[in-house]
Write a structure and sequence with these properties.
Length: about 260
């Protein structure tokens, strides 16, 4: 493991809602520039953990260190500044239905930067074209396929040049062909922009295809963590169950695994 300070580090994170203990001491290292996939079943605490990574929830105990600084000891304005380094791709894309594709992608720019109309258009169109979206800027989300909506959402998430991209169950409800396209989109975005990616998933086939590191979250703790090769040979019952339920041994060609 690298001695370099990771871009994000979670230590001893606990969170309860009333009598329900959701996170029970999560420790997690997010390596700079890599794709880390967090796997876990329903109720394992994935969504709650993600909300802590961007300081939308405050823990009962523990830290989330961003470049070595605890998000929860920062001033409010410092937290807002830190969040600008994060991009988020939600499970349902979360586009604004009443806005055109162009306005959806431009929205973060208008909130956080002051660009000329020409510079704004150049940046928005370049982000769309990077994702093979041509001549769609005047369309509305309802006119697009599910896969196209995800690509528009990714263009919006990357338009400010974030250091970290968080994907919340990006392949849920998609067919195998579309899952492969989304996997490729995640991997290509990481390679093109050298962005650190955190992916929440329950699909081991997809996970083995894109991950550089995998963390298994179960009952509020990380029960195993490592490279895809490590996880393939893991004897932890949670990891084994995920692999077997997915119907894959995780074997992929070196080219597919990157």
């Amino acid at each position: 493991m690298s001695d370099e300070v990771p871009i994000l580090q979670v230590t001893g994170l606990h969170k309860s809602f009333g009598d329900q203990q959701v996170l029970r001491g999560v420790d997690l290292r997010i390596e700079t520039g890599l794709i880390t996939v967090i796997i876990g079943g329903s109720g394992s605490g994935k969504s709650v953990l993600i909300k802590h990574l961007v300081a939308l929830l405050r823990p009962d105990q523990g830290q989330v260190l961003f470049h070595g600084r605890d998000l929860f000891t920062m001033r409010h304005d410092e937290v807002l500044q830190a969040r600008r380094h994060f991009g988020m791709l939600f499970q349902n894309s979360a586009l604004f239905d009443s806005m055109s594709v162009f306005d959806n992608v431009a929205f973060p720019l208008r909130e956080h930067r002051k660009l000329s109309r020409a510079d704004e258009r150049e940046l928005v169109i370049s982000r769309l074209e990077e994702l093979n979206l041509f001549n769609v800027e005047h369309k509305f989300p309802s006119e697009l396929s599910g896969g196209m909506r995800k690509r528009v959402a990714l263009a919006r998430a990357t338009v400010l040049g974030p250091e970290i991209l968080i994907y919340d169950e990006p392949t849920t409800g998609l067919d195998p062909v579309m899952i492969a396209q989304v996997d490729d989109m995640i991997a290509e975005t990481q390679e093109r922009h050298h962005v650190t990616s955190v992916v929440i998933s329950h699909d081991m086939a997809s996970t083995f295809r894109i991950a550089h590191r995998i963390a298994a979250l179960h009952d509020g703790v990380i029960v195993d963590y490592g490279t895809p090769d490590h996880m393939r040979s893991s004897h932890h019952p949670v990891v084994r169950a995920f692999i077997e339920t997915s119907g894959t041994s995780g074997r992929r060609t070196a080219e597919a695994e990157r």
